[in-house]
Amino acid sequence: MNEKSKSPESGFDPPSFGLIMLKFNELRYKIKEDALKRALFEMAVSPESFFNLRANFARSLVAMNVACWILGIGDRHTSNVLIDRSNGRLAGVDFGIAFGAGARDQPIPEMVPFRLTPQFVSVMEPMRTAGLMHKCSVYTLACLRSSRKLLKSCLEVFVREPTLDWLEAARYRFQQDENKAAFAWDPQTRINIAIRKLNGANPKVLVAEELRLGQVAQNPEFLAGYLKLLQVSVPNLAEGNLSVEQQVECLLQMATSGSILGIAYAGWFPWF
């Protein structure tokens, strides 16, 4: 983020949203917008083969993205998403940043729910996030929500046996604000957010909550700026009881928002 786009009084100035988009697009258009699509096309032996590869690409991307969102898995930079050249399917690796750690425990928080950057979207031209990608997202999330009781039972294991990263993050906040309750129940709050996702919570509201619980909250000015940007970048919906379609629409808007991608960590390559 350019220092000129930051106001010491309020974190972000409204005019800076345009500057964020300007800088984001400068980087985005340095690479041919259809570079990934062309690579997929070169893997195909015929036009029919390309459409099959593209369908596999979209379905596997959606399945990975929705599952990663439920589990709060972040750090989906370009080296953590692999492609099988024989069939076009994607596979994720390195799941160390999980259960909201990307938004909570990073100095530059991840606000996107999953990776759906311009190159990934361009593969699905002309429908982009509509059509197959939207349909598969709804189907995948509906399947997970219908199995929420089973998934909840699996998630409870992490409450009883929290990871060392969670304990370290909670210990850090304990030292900062001396909130013993936050230290004791940090694993439970992480799992509760995953369960709320399965119950129809608004993705935008959940990201805001995680920002308030994270490292960025140590600087109230920065927190206010991130929350303001989130507010103007994603349309408002109810806080909970959303339909699967409403959740999917919100997720796709957050994942493709240029202003949100524009303040992501540079090493995440949000413009690709």
TrEMBL record:
One term of GO molecular function: ATP binding
Its EC number(s): 2.7.11.1
A Gene Ontology term for the protein's cellular component: nucleus
Domain PI3K/PI4K catalytic: 1-209
GO process terms (BP): double-strand break repair; intrinsic apoptotic signaling pathway in response to DNA damage; telomere maintenance
Name of the protein this chain belongs to: non-specific serine/threonine protein kinase
Residues annotated as domain FATC: 240-272
Cited Gene3D superfamilies: Phosphatidylinositol 3-/4-kinase, catalytic domain
Alphabetized PROSITE patterns for the sequence: FATC, PI3_4_KINASE_2, PI3_4_KINASE_3
Pfam families, alphabetized: FATC (PF02260), PI3_PI4_kinase (PF00454)
Keywords for the protein's UniProt record, in alphabetical order: ATP-binding, Kinase, Nucleotide-binding, Transferase
